[in-house]
Amino acid sequence: MQAATPVTDSASPPAAQRSRIPKVGIIGAGWGARVQLPKFREQGFEVTALWSRGEEKAKEVCAREGIGHAFFGDDTTEICTCPDVDLVSIVGPAHRRGHAVSKALQAEKHILCEKPIACNYPEAKEIAKRVQTITGELNNTQVCLVDFELRCVPALRELRDLILTANLIGNVNISVSFTSLRNFAWMQPGVKASHWHYRQTGGGCWSAIGIHYVDLVRFLFSEEIQKVSAIQRPMRGIVVAKNGDVPSADGMCQAMLVTGRKKISIQMTINGFNPGLPEEVDEMVICSPKATIRFDFLTSELVIYKNPPPDTATPMEKEMETKRVIKGEGNAWQDVGTPALMQRVRAFFEKDDKNALLNMATFQDGLRAQLITDAIHQSAANDGEWAEVTV
User: Fold this and answer.
1) Which H or E run contains 56?
2) Are 238 and 375 contained in the same domain?
3) pLDDT tens digit string along 138-195?
4) How open is the CA angle 147-153-156, to the nearest 5 degrees?
5) Number of alpha carbons in the 13 Å side-chain half-sphere of residue 269
6) DSSP 192
7) 200: which of 12, 37, 118, 376 is 20 to 30 A away, CA to CA?
């Protein structure tokens, strides 16, 4: 349903500046309202609509933020078909995303969909198939992206170029470790159970963090993950309704992954609740005989340590510093990756820049990430037994 009294978007850019920039409707009053809304506006987009399941929340956010259309209820059809919306940002719970994608596709809207795109591979496959069918019929005039915003962090895009074109780390004995020790609000003791706490609604630490790491590996190395081994433990201390289901999503995940071609060894440690931890940790370390690389996801700082080049090195290799620091500008997701993604989307529409969306995540990337996610859960259900990443 829609709120009866629309209001004016007081923070929208002048008409001359937004003539080719799509108007945005956001599905979700959590991350969507808290992070995406101000970032869209900072990048010159007009946010014309917002959906929240609760009527009071939808109206409150829209009134406070000057958004013209407040939608609410169990159905997202109205915001997906709203004439005042050109691009739908789907940030609601994972189990609701497929319906929103379908409605937005039918209404010929552009789509930015949060990850994971579904709760399991069969659902994700159906969604990706719909996207491929519709966009193919429209000759690719309909933009459909998955919000793996780490692909847009400038330092990580530069790192990808160094790995793939400048042979920064070589081709053998490569290992990658991810460590995420966080204190998520939805994992604090006494929190009421929500979609974050159930596997069947796409919740858990893996869906929050691990799936980002998986996509980043594919992006940085142009490699596919071939097999996985994982141990997961459920969340504790979550308050559930009387006779409600026990939270089934993971609060901790330890995983080993191996790529197919270069046999890159990847280790992930993800824990969403670390009582007493003075500072959260979220970092990636890449090691090889040629270089060691550290990236801090909480500051976006990239540090490259490289062995002095031998006499046989190429001119490009000799030009690279033995230590290089690319300073960060904040959290890689909300402070850097999200606005960088929006800048690219804006450049695509406003400047007709076809390269702006180069190497951005598609629904096929979302499908692959879901396939790996299902393999992780399968392995964890079998006490860490290795699982092949196959359809």
Assistant:
1) helix 55-65
2) yes
3) 556 899 999 999 999 999 999 999 999 999 999 999 999 999 999 999 999 999 999 9
4) 115
5) 9
6) B
7) 37
